[in-house]
Design goal:
The chain is α+β, with helices and mostly antiparallel strands and 196 residues long. The chain is built from 7 helices and 5 strands, in the order H-H-E-H-H-E-E-H-E-H-E-H. Helix 6 links the parallel strand 4 and strand 5. The N and C termini lie far apart (67 Å).
């Protein structure tokens, strides 16, 4: 192997590592927001092409500011790692699912092929998995770390946009917080559509 060829190989390996770093959250080792956006774009395009569904979970760690204020930021980081690992473990059997750190204490999950009922059921599994960790949280009315989850699922069309999917999941997250946290909800407008 020539010296020039060795340098080219080293440069390629370095570029691969840099690409991985650019798409990975440093704390949780999950895909970051940039990688999430790319994965959602891909999943959405595939769902349009194949005529399938796509589900989305927006997950927020309940009372996380109070957790950091009570236990300190290093403990908050450790807590976030435990929570994201529990979410990843719960979703491991779901082929094609993408778990990503969306921002702060928020995690987003893409569920290719999942209709609303399936997305809700998976969200319930995630809620239970985080609660089962039993991480003490005296700043929460639940006394342990829990998550609130907003849920959405659509059968995308060529003329549609993924922003509707994101907006519905976000509204569901607000509904879960309003319902007392440690639960999963869909947006009220989506409930009306699901009931029709």
């Amino acid at each position: 192997m020539t010296e020039h060829h060795e340098r080219e190989l080293e440069l390629c390996q370095l570029n691969d590592r840099l690409a991985a770093l650019a798409s990975t959250d440093g704390l949780t080792q999950l895909p970051n927001r940039r990688a999430f956006d790319a994965a959602l774009e891909t999943a959405y395009s595939i769902a349009v092409e194949k005529g399938g569904y796509i589900g989305l979970l927006m997950i927020d760690v309940d009372r996380f500011k109070a957790y950091n204020d009570t236990y300190g930021h290093p403990a908050g980081d450790a807590c976030l790692k435990k929570v994201t690992q529990a979410i990843s473990d719960a979703l491991a059997p779901m082929r094609g699912s993408v778990v990503a750190r969306y921002g702060g204490e928020e995690v987003a999950v893409i569920l290719p092929g999942a209709e609303l009922s399936e997305t809700l059921a998976i969200g319930g599994i995630v809620c239970a998995a985080v609660r089962a960790l039993g991480v003490d949280h005296i700043g929460s009315e639940k006394r342990v770390v829990t998550v609130s989850i907003g849920c959405s699922a659509i059968k995308p069309s060529k003329n549609g946009t993924k922003s509707h999917l994101l907006r519905q999941a976000d509204l569901g997250l607000y509904a879960a917080k309003a319902a007392g946290r440690d639960c999963i909800r869909i947006a009220e407008t989506e409930q009306e559509t699901a009931a029709v």
